[in-house]
Amino acid sequence: MKNRLGKWLLSWPPLLYLVLFFLIPTAIMFVAAFRFPGDYGGLAPMYYYEEGKLIWDLTLENFTRLVEEPIYFELFAKSAWYAALTTLICLVMAYPLSWLIARSAKKYRDLLLLLVILPFWSNFLIRIYAWMIILGPQSAFTRAVNWVWTGMGGEPVQLLFTPFAVIVGMVYVHLPFMVLPLYANLEKHDLSLLSAAQDLGANAWQRFWRITWPLSLPGVFAGSALVFIPALGMFAIPDILGGTDSIMIGNLIKQQILDTRDWPFGAVLSIMLTAGVLAIAMLGALIARKGVKRG
């Protein structure tokens, strides 16, 4: 009886949280996708009475609009490309950093981890606005880039309000989410395996590719999921650092909900984004499972 009570007390709070803040809002969004927009925005009544009969005022026009206009799928594909590029850059930058932290002396390890999570101590928007200053046309960084580029015969370039600025901002924000799971994985590796491989004649590349990389795949997959999924729906960074060519699916959803107040179509876009994230997560889990079994 006590064991059941303990399990109930442990399982019900997170389950209740998921129901209240995920399941119910998702259900509301799903129902809103089949409704008409109101005359002044928002949602029109879902039903009305005519001659004493209950008439449901629902439609599939929002889904039809999504399918008939390819620009929305193109925008989703561009958002997926931005998120994938961000994930790849974070992986390339985080892997050696995580390895360095994992193999550093214990007295320095906590300090290095503190430096990784230090940006979380400041406000998200403040950090993004700081990049506006760094990438601004009059900044020292932009002047240095243009000095080198024009010296090579190129024309001066603008860094702010470009896709480059969006990728830089997203990599900066999400890099710690790649470092931490990679460090947690690499820190547990048995170094005697590398020593044994070296004794058998394996060079540095063979030791990494045959031992370190397969053992680190769980950390790679975990970090990739933590970076890719939030990056796919990001809207604040493209709003602040990007231009009109850098709009992502999250910006379009925000525009439909807050600006044009077309809540039904915003709900359809949100459903598409949620379904896409779930599909990609399931595919990633399947690939990860096969990779772990093969390893």
TrEMBL record:
CDD domains named among the record's database cross-references: TM_PBP2
Keywords, ordered alphabetically: Cell membrane, Membrane, Transmembrane, Transmembrane helix, Transport
Transmembrane segments: 12-36, 80-102, 111-134, 159-184, 215-237, 265-288
Membrane topology field: Multi-pass membrane protein
Principal location listed in the UniProt entry: membrane
Gene Ontology terms: cellular component: plasma membrane
Localization annotation: Cell membrane
Domain of life: Bacteria
Family annotation (PROSITE patterns): ABC_TM1
GO biological process, one term: transmembrane transport
Domain ABC transmembrane type-1, chain residue ranges per copy: 76-284
Pfam families associated with the record: BPD_transp_1
Family the UniProt entry places it in: Belongs to the binding-protein-dependent transport system permease family. CysTW subfamily.
PANTHER family tied to this protein: INNER MEMBRANE ABC TRANSPORTER PERMEASE PROTEIN YDCU-RELATED, INNER MEMBRANE ABC TRANSPORTER PERMEASE PROTEIN YDCU-RELATED-RELATED
UniProt protein name: ABC transporter permease
